Amino acid sequence: MAIQKVMVIGAGQMGAGIAQVCAQAGFDVLLHDMNTEALEKGLKNIEKLLTRAVVKERITDKDKTDTLNRLKPSNHLKDAQSCDLVIEAVVENMDVKAKVFGDLDVFAPKHAILATNTSSLPITEIAAVTNRPDQVIGMHFMNPVPVMKLVEIIRGLQTSDETYQAIEEMTAKLNKTSVEVADLPGFAANRILMPMINEAIFAVHEGVASVEDVDKVMKLGMNHPMGPLTLADFIGLDTCLYIMEVLYEGFNDSKYRPCPLLRQYVKAGWLGKKSGRGFYQYN
Ligand code: NAI
């Protein structure tokens, strides 16, 4: 089955990025959000990023026009009826995702693959609300989607080889590199990244070094492009805490204990860049 038309559900920072790369790769794309304002904002962001790419001579003006022509807004999940692949990127909440997948199972044609961009929720559990668990899969893009090359492809317990292959081929067409990952808490990316960020927060909490110096250690000592605390602010401290909780509870292992300082910052509303304050202050 060749994938030609894609629907992306959720037009936030991830969904808009996913819709953009799919349209740039030549797929017809429907972008849906239950919130009309979010949908408009997502589409505007895509246009802005494409315009910037033209200015920087990364793409031509025609590429931009063609991409935007392939991208259409959708106001109803029912529009999934014309799609071969649906990629869900709504909020990280099992109840919300379960409802979306239940509806998609009704609206999307029988052959369609249903993928989720979840960063931590079990694919097997999301698949279980549908009558096609063999056609449900994790397609975990990295943020910002147009820039980052990696996609983790996560197999649920019942994901078929055909579904896996179709998504692996699709990912290659998006000019991304994929890795195959099992359906365990944090998958691979967050299982490795988040404990490092959490440990960096412990280092600050225990007075090992200052925020700036912890970041310097990893940037200048380990050649990371960004320090772990800068990165945590960028991801969002609430998201970091949420993923640490998933690891802690999922493995029932104290090595994933979220740092008390991280909890305190989240309680204070210091969520990182998006709230104006995290480990650093933003204007
Ligand atoms: P976001 O909050 O920017 O966007 C979510 C969008 O989904 C919002 O526009 C909201 O209106 C919409 N939405 C919520 N419920 C909906 C529903 N029932 N139907 C249609 N639209 C609905 O969130 P973000 O950051 O884009 O995350 C989306 C997903 O991607 C989450 O599962 C997250 O864990 C995952 N993810 C996030 C990354 C990040 O760095 N932010 C990285 C990789 C994955």
TrEMBL record:
Its EC number is 1.1.1.157. It comes from Virgibacillus halodenitrificans (Bacillus halodenitrificans). The keyword tRNA processing does not apply. Residues 5-183 form the 3-hydroxyacyl-CoA dehydrogenase NAD binding domain. The lineage of its organism: Bacteria, Bacillati, Bacillota, Bacilli, Bacillales. This is 3-hydroxybutyryl-CoA dehydrogenase. PANTHER family: 3-HYDROXYACYL-COA DEHYDROGENASE FAMILY PROTEIN, 3-HYDROXYBUTYRYL-COA DEHYDROGENASE. Residues 186-282 form the 3-hydroxyacyl-CoA dehydrogenase C-terminal domain. It comes from the Bacteria.
